[in-house]
Amino acid sequence: MNELHADVVVAGAGPTGLMLAAELRPAGVDAVVVERLSERTGLSKALNLQPRRAEVLDLRGLLPRAEERAFATVQEGHFAAVPISYAGWDTRHPYQLGIPQAQVEELLEERFAELGGKVLRGHELVGLSQDAAGVRVVTPELVLSCRYLVGCDGGRSTVRKLLDVPFEGENGTGYGVVADVVVDHVPDRAAGTWTSMRGMVQSDGATGFCGLIPLAEPLLYRLTFGDRARRPATFGSPVTEAEVHAAFAANYGPASIKEIRRLSRFSDASRLAARYRVGRVLLAGDAAHIHFPAGGQGLNLGVQDAANLGWKLAAALNGFDDVLDTYEPNGAPSGPPCSRTSRPRTASSRKAAPAAPCARSSPPSPSCPRCPTTCPAWSPGSPSAIPHPRTPIPSPARASPTSASPAAPGPAPSSTPATTSCSPRRGQICRACPRFRAHCPQRTSQRCRSPPAALVRPDGHFAWLPVT
Ligand SMILES: Cc1cc2nc3c(=O)[nH]c(=O)nc-3n(C[C@H](O)[C@H](O)[C@H](O)COP(=O)(O)OP(=O)(O)OC[C@H]3O[C@@H](n4cnc5c(N)ncnc54)[C@H](O)[C@@H]3O)c2cc1C
User: Can you tell me whether residue 232 is helix, strand or coil?
Assistant: First the structure.
C-alpha cells in the first residue's frame, strides 16, 4: 500500500475542503485533499455567494474569477420569504452573487492547483487513528500520515462518525424537491433574470412552498417545491418526473417543462456536531452542521468555516496550538447563528408570505422585539452583517482589505494591532483610525464606552476586547 505524508489532510473536495486547502497553501502548509469521487459531478446544489463570502474571496483575489463565472447579481435576499435589501450594508459587496456550486468548486480547485496542491480523486477515507504527534488516514489504496486531518466530507461525514462525535439536532418533518428544468416560455409568475428573491418563494398559505429561479441559460430554471411540515410517503424514494410536472403545472402553468436536467430531494433536518475538534482531527462545513437550505447558506458557511480554520491550522503548525481551541461553533454553545435561525426562517415562512409580523428592511431597530435573532432585517447568514444595537460584535467586514492587497493567511501572531497607527488600550479608542471612530458613539472622543479592537484575523475579522 502506498504511503504519503502531508502537514494537513483534508477529506472531501466540496467547497469547504477546497477552500480550506487553498487557504493553507499560501501559508506554506503542505495540504492534500482526498476525495472519494473519481471526477467532479458538475452538479450544483448551491447557487449563491452571500456578501461576506464575496468579501472573503475578495481578500484572496478570487472574486474576479467568481464574477466571471457568475450568472446573476442579486440585490435582495430574503428571510422566511420576507425580502431583505442589501443596499446600505456596510460592505463593498452588497449583493449575492448568483453562481452555481460547481463553479465555486472549480475556481477553488483551480486556485489550489496553482498553489501546487493536488486533489487525490477516487480515494475514500475509510479509517483514521491519531496520537499526540499526528493522524493516520486510511483509504483503500493509501495510507497518509499527517499532523492534522479535517473532515470536510459532507453531512454524512465518515470522519465525524469515526470520531464518534454526536450530530445533535432534529431530523425535521418537511421536505423539498429541487429540479433544474427548461421551460417553453417564461411563466407569468416568474422572472426572466435573477435580480432579487422578492416574490421568488411562494407559499400556499399553509406549509407548502415553491420557487422558480432563472439560471444561466434562457428558459432554464431552478424549480424548488415541497412542504415544511409534511413528508409524503414517497420521501425516501427518488423524485419522479411526474411529481415535478405536477408541481410546476399547479404553480406556473400554462407554461410547461420541456426538459428536466437534475432532480433530488432534500430534508429540513437541522444538526450540529457536538464538537468540531477531537485532538488533531477537525470538522468543517456540512460535516459539522446541516440545516434547511432556505436562504442559501450551507456552502457559504462552509467557505466561512474554511477561512476561519485555515489560518488557525497554519498558526497551530507554527507553534500556536492554542488558537485551535477557538475553533468551535463560533464560540457559542447553541451553535453558529445559522443553526439558531434556520428554525425561525422555516417557522415564520410557514405563514403566508410576506405576512411575517416584522417585515421591515434594513436597518434593524433596537425597538423591534424580534431583533436580532428573528428579525428579517438582521442577517443570520452573514457574520459581517449590518451593525445592530443589540449585536455584541460590530461589523467585522470593515476590516477587509481591498482586492488590490489580498491578505494571505499565514502563521498568526496571537494579537496583531488593527493598524500600525492605532494601538488602543482597554476602554479607549484611537482617534487616528477612522474605522474605530465609526464605531465610537462619541465619534471624536478618545474615551469610549465601546470596547477596543485589538486583533485583526487574517480572514478579515476584528475581535473586540471585552471591557471588564
Ligand atoms: C437543494 C439544496 C440547495 C442548496 N442551496 C444552497 C445555496 O443556494 N447556497 C448555499 O450556501 N448552500 C446551499 N445548499 C447547501 C450546500 O450545498 C452545502 O452546504 C455544501 O455543499 C456543503 O459543502 P461541503 O464542502 O461542506 O460538503 P459537500 O458539498 O457535501 O462535499 C463533501 C465532499 O466530500 C466527499 N466525501 C464524502 N465522504 C468522503 C470520504 N469518506 N472520503 C473522501 N471524500 C468524501 C464528497 O464526495 C464531496 O465531494 C443547498 C443544499 C441543498 C440540498
Answer: coil
Residue matched to cell numbers 456596510: 90
Ligand 1 binding pocket includes 220 (Cβ within 6 Å) = no
Longest dimension (CA), the chain: 67
Q: What is the pLDDT of residue 421?
A: 36
Question: Alpha helices, DSSP H only, in 318-383?
Answer: 337-348
CATH class of 175-267: alpha beta
CA distance 199 to 204: 13
Report residue 258 CA to chain centroid gap.
33
Does the C-beta of 151 come closer than 6 Å to ligand 1?
A: no
What is the reported pLDDT for 199?
A: 81
Distance CA 263, CA 128 (A): 34
The domain defined by 2-169+271-326 carries CATH number 3.50.50.60 = yes
Task: Residue count of the chain, please give it.
Answer: 468
Residue 265, beta-bridge partner list? 177
Specify the 3-state DSSP secondary structure of 2: strand
Q: Where are the domains of the chain?
A: 2-169+271-326, 175-267
C-alpha 132 – ligand 1 centre gap (Å): 30
Say whether pTM exceeds 0.90.
Answer: no
| The C-alpha cell that represents 164 in the structure block | 464518534
Q: Is the peptide bond before 94 cis (omega within 30 degrees of 0)?
A: no
Q: What is the pLDDT at residue 462?
A: 63
Residue with cell 449563491: 48
Does ligand 1 come within 6 angstroms of the Cβ of 125?
yes
Q: Please state the separation of Cα 367 from the chain's center in Å.
A: 29
Question: How high is the pLDDT of residue 235?
Answer: 85
Residues in the chain, pLDDT under 70: 329-456, 461-468
